[in-house]
Amino acid sequence: MAGLVGSYHIIYNPIIKEEVLRVENASHYNSPNIFSIYALLGAYSQEGKEWVKELCETIQNNIDYALDYIQSHFKGIKVARPQGTYMLYLDCTEYLEEQEITLDELLRKGIEVGVLWQDGRPFQKENTIRMNLALPFSKVKEAMQRLSDFVFSEENSL
Predict the structure, then answer these.
(1) Are the beta carbons of 94 and 141 closer than 8 angstroms?
(2) Long-range contacts: 72-76, Cβ < 8 Å, 24+?
(3) How deeply is 147 buried, as exposed, middle or buried, from its count of CB atoms within 10 A (0-12, 13-18, 19+)?
(4) Which residue of 5, 62, 85, 148 has the lowest C-beta tally within 10 Å?
(5) Which of 89, 69, 84 shows the shortest CA–CA distance to 131?
(6) Torsion angle (degrees, nearest 10) of CA 23, 28, 29, 30
(7) What is the distance between the alpha carbons of residues 114 and 149, in angstroms, rounded to a whole number?
(8) CA nearest 129: which of 141, 142, 143?
(9) Rg (CA), the chain
(10) DSSP structure class, residue 117
């Protein structure tokens, strides 16, 4: 729903709520459109509940697979289980230091082999890469394989 500009929060803590509203007001993502409104209504229908259940299962499987794969194949990359999101942040600090490359160079390497990951710096996460895992499992497997073969492989390391 977030990609449709149709997400929302329920925040009971007034301090956190004030801070979230402050940050939101500085963003361009806060204007719902007719499509996002109807999508939100559909999400709360019976069919929407079934879809969300299947989506959550798919995302959880993707997260489990990606975490295991990254931890066992990408030396120098740290990753933590996301909470309440399908976005994964890869902490590349150690890898960048070991390889003596910049985050921009690493980002380019992934993009060159067809992995469209994102710079984590705009999300206040230095030396991180942001990965969207809300996609078919086959695409997650393909991305991990490409990264393993062409970006984080021993041959491609200095």
Answers:
(1) no
(2) 73/144, 73/148, 73/152, 74/147, 74/148, 74/152, 75/152
(3) buried
(4) 85
(5) 89
(6) 80
(7) 12
(8) 143
(9) 18
(10) -
For the chain, 158 residues long, give each residue's pLDDT as a single digit of tens.
667 777 778 899 999 999 988 888 877 666 778 888 888 888 889 999 998 899 999 999 999 999 999 999 999 999 999 998 999 999 999 999 999 999 999 999 999 999 999 999 999 999 999 999 999 999 999 999 999 999 998 766 54
Contact 63, 81 (CB under 8 A): yes
Where does residue 79 fall: left (phi above 0), alpha (psi -120 to 50 degrees), or beta otherwise? beta
Structure tokens at 69: 């794969």
Which pTM does this prediction carry? Answer: 0.76
